[in-house]
Amino acid sequence: MVALIMLEMRTIKISLIFWFPLKRKTCLDLELIEFIKAIILDMFAAGSDTTSTALERAMTELLRRPEIMHKLKTEIRSIAGSKTFITEDDLEAMVYLKAVIKETVRLHPPLPFLVPRASRTKVEIDGYEIKQGYQVYINAWAIGRDPISWEIPEEFEPDRFLRSVVDYKAMISG
Ligand code: HEM
């Protein structure tokens, strides 16, 4: 996968080199190209290291817990079976796989402090005053291991996400 990503990056770099001389006419074009380059770089930077770190951690946890590995393999084989290609619908049905990924990211967030943010205005959160322009780090690592929020937080237990209404997207109510 990493090789594929690198190949993709090389292709994009080459296409941009070819594209550049054609677009060098006005300032606006240059700005636009810089903008596109920044977006592409962002996507690769944000999507490659995070994904490979999460995969590495997931495989490590699965090797340490063969019974979970077995349950996951059983689910994947029952859905993917002998298919050559799997689809988005197949992925949707792999609920245990999703739970394994969520549990991996809970215990080993690839970005433990997320991405630094700065407050636009003065705000108060949970009694703490954050002044305008202050940089804020969210300790996702600590949130994922908080014993008030999680049962046996240090254990790799994907099943907790099968029982839970809490998701990374939102908290489901009603
Ligand atoms: C396990 C995999 C991943 C993890 C743990 C992860 C984590 C994160 C985190 C913590 C943020 C910052 C959110 C915030 O502070 O608001 C973020 C933003 C972002 N991620 Fe990911 N990410 C993953 C995969 C990906 C992939 C595969 C892509 C693209 C192909 C991607 C693209 C982005 C982009 C573009 C942003 C910036 C969004 C914005 O600021 O509007 N991420 N990601």
Automatic annotation (TrEMBL):
SUPFAM superfamilies: Cytochrome P450. The keyword Metal-binding applies. The keyword ATP-binding does not apply. Gene3D superfamilies: Cytochrome P450. Keywords: Heme, Iron, Metal-binding, Monooxygenase, Oxidoreductase. Belongs to the cytochrome P450 family. This is Cytochrome P450 71A8. It comes from Ziziphus jujuba (Chinese jujube). The lineage of its organism: Eukaryota, Viridiplantae, Streptophyta, Embryophyta, Tracheophyta.
